[in-house]
Amino acid sequence: MRITYPHMGHLYIVIRALLTGLGLDVVLPPPTSRRTVELGVRHSPEFACFPFKLNMGNYLEAKEMGADTILMAGGVGPCRFGYYAQVQQQILSDLGIEMEMVVLEPPDVSFREVKDKIRYLIGDLSWWQMIKAVRFAWCKARAVDTIEEKLLHLRPRVTEPQKLESYFREALQEIDGADNRKKVQQVVRGFLIRAETMPQHSREPLRVGLVGEIFTVLEPFANYDIEKRLGLLGVEVTRSIWLSAWINEHLLGGLLRIRHECVHDKQLAAPYLNSVCGGAR
């Protein structure tokens, strides 16, 4: 089994840590590019949303690299995301491409189904080893969000934003390559020290809130790298959607309390948006 998964921002770091920790052979698709878009658009329904097409392009490029299994999240609710896997599997079959799709539905839908699929993936691996892999992946998810949040805050403030950007990219690579939690934490501390000691402007930047469908908010290619563009123009971008919050809500059932989740925002929005909504209907 050579397993792959679609890109969504820096999710690849977290999923790679999880799957390699489970002893699986991981095939990471190339970074999303114009070729990814061309492949996805060519083989997707015209009316399908852009994230769907990018996912298809990721799968097809991963297949060229030898992947034979796709790990995909499922979902329920008004967003079409919950149907991605079934439709994409049919498209791949129609193309004559043999790739197995393993769909992990949210635990609150069917915990037993999730458990059975995990057991199918990990084979004889003990549940304790699985827990260790999950904890390590979660550590990397929180690390990525921590340095990215600092990047968004400092990018419009420092006098050398490109140098800050290089520090961030270097930290991401080191987090991705770290093989234990201590190293991950060292990388985060090192980045924060270097970033916070950089010279800053005296002016206070304009602050802009970034809202939208989760994939297009988290995936720089899908949003034309809008956070970086605005940051380099001296604008601080704030957002309420974070990778670890998405994992906590959809895969861990909201079990963990993390500070990105803002009840106050939900209370303010309640009179205007008081029902569950999705990215597409």
UniProtKB/TrEMBL annotation:
A Pfam short name: DUF2229
Name of the protein in its database record: DUF2229 domain-containing protein
Start and end residues of each DUF2229 domain: 8-72
InterPro entries: CoA_activase_DUF2229 (IPR018709), Dehydratase_Activator_Redct (IPR051805)
